[in-house]
Design a protein that fits this description.
With 185 residues, this protein is of the alpha+beta class. It has one domain. It is 47% helix and 17% strand. It has four helices and six strands; from the N terminus they run H-E-E-E-E-E-H-H-H-E. The strands form two sheets. Strands 1, 3, 4 and 6 form a four-stranded antiparallel β-sheet that branches. Helix 2 runs antiparallel to helix 3 and helix 2 packs parallel to helix 4. The longest helix has 30 residues.
C-alpha cells in the first residue's frame, strides 16, 4: 500500500501534461497501418518536410481490488499530424515507423516497470523516472531516425531502420500488452 499513494500522485502529475483521448487519438495496434486520411492537421508553413507524424506515450495508474493497474500506450495524434502529399507510399511507411518507434518505447517502459516491481523497488519512483527517461530516449531515437534516413528519402537506410525497429519490437514482444497488473501483498 505504501507504493500506491505516490503512484497516484504521479498519475495525476503526468496526466496534467498529456492531451486527453477526446481528440481522437489512435492507439498503436499490431498490424494496423496508418493511412493518409488519418493525417488531419494543418501543415506547418515554415516546415520544409512533406509530412509530420505526432505520436506520444500515455501512462495511467489505477488501484482496483488490491492490485495496481498501469496502462502504457503509444498514440498517433491525427489532429496534429499533417501531410502535403497523399500519394507517396514510401513517405507513409516512413511516418508509420515513427509510430512504431513510439510503440517500441511503450514496451521498453512496460518492461522497466515490471522489472522494478519484481525487484521490489520503489515503483512510484521508478515510474516517474522511467517515464521521463523513456520519453527522452524516444525523442532521441525519432530525431536519429529522421537524420539517418534523411526523412525517409534514403531508401537503403530507411530499410535498415525498418528492420531494426521490427527486430526490436519482436525483442520486446513479451511487453506488447498495454495493461500491466501488479498484485499488492
Amino acid at each position: 500500500m505504501k507504493r500506491l499513494l505516490p503512484l497516484l500522485l504521479i498519475f495525476f502529475t503526468l496526466s496534467a501534461f498529456m492531451p486527453v483521448g477526446g481528440e481522437g487519438m489512435i492507439a498503436w495496434q499490431d498490424g494496423a497501418m496508418l493511412s493518409w486520411d488519418m493525417f488531419r492537421g494543418a501543415a506547418e508553413k515554415d516546415n520544409p518536410h512533406h509530412a509530420q507524424t505526432h505520436c506520444m506515450l500515455d501512462a495511467s495508474v489505477k488501484n482496483i481490488d488490491n492490485s495496481i493497474y498501469i496502462e502504457v500506450r503509444a498514440y498517433f495524434l491525427p489532429s496534429r499530424s499533417w501531410t502535403r502529399v497523399r500519394d507517396d507510399r514510401a513517405l507513409l511507411l516512413h511516418e508509420q515507423l515513427h509510430f512504431d518507434i513510439t510503440e517500441l518505447h511503450a514496451r521498453i517502459l512496460r518492461k522497466r516497470l515490471v522489472d522494478a516491481f519484481r525487484q521490489d523497488r520503489d515503483l512510484a519512483l521508478i515510474f516517474e523516472q522511467s517515464f521521463d527517461e523513456v520519453n527522452a530516449a524516444l525523442q532521441k531515437m525519432q530525431d536519429e531516425y529522421d537524420r539517418e534516413s534523411h526523412h525517409g528519402t534514403r531508401a537503403k537506410l530507411q530499410r535498415l531502420w525498418q528492420r531494426k525497429i521490427e527486430a526490436s519490437l519482436r525483442e520486446y514482444e513479451a511487453f506488447s500488452e498495454a495493461s500491466i497488473r501488479f498484485v499488492l501483498q
